[in-house]
Write a sequence for this structure.
C-alpha cells in the first residue's frame, strides 16, 4: 500500500516537473507583433451575403419593440401585476398585437 502511494506521488511529481519545464522552455510571445504578423490572413472564410428579413420577421421585431416599450413604461409606473414577468407580458402583448393586425 505504501509503495503504490509513493509511486503515484513520484509519477505525479514527475509529470508536473515535465509540464513546468515545457512551459518555461517555450517562448512567451503573448501579444507580440511578430506572433500576430505570423498568422496567415487567408484563414478567414468569405462572408456570406445576408438574406433580407422576411415580412414576418420584420413584423415580429416591431411587435417586440412595442411590447418592450410598453413593458418598461408599465414597470416604471408600477402598473404591472404582482409576479408578472417579461416572458408572460411578452406572450400576452404579442398575441394582442398580432390580433390587432
Amino acid at each position: 500500500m505504501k509503495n503504490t502511494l509513493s509511486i503515484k506521488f513520484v509519477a505525479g511529481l514527475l509529470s508536473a516537473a515535465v509540464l513546468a519545464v515545457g512551459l518555461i522552455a517555450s517562448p512567451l510571445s503573448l501579444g507580440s507583433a511578430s506572433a500576430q504578423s505570423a498568422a496567415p490572413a487567408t484563414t478567414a472564410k468569405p462572408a456570406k451575403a445576408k438574406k433580407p428579413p422576411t415580412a414576418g420577421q420584420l413584423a415580429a421585431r416591431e411587435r417586440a419593440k412595442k411590447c418592450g416599450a410598453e413593458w418598461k413604461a408599465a414597470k416604471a409606473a408600477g402598473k404591472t401585476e404582482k409576479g408578472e414577468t417579461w416572458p408572460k407580458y411578452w406572450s400576452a402583448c404579442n398575441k394582442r398585437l398580432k390580433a390587432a393586425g
Observations:
- The helical segments are 2-25, 33-38, 55-77, 86-100.
- The chain has a mean pLDDT of 80.
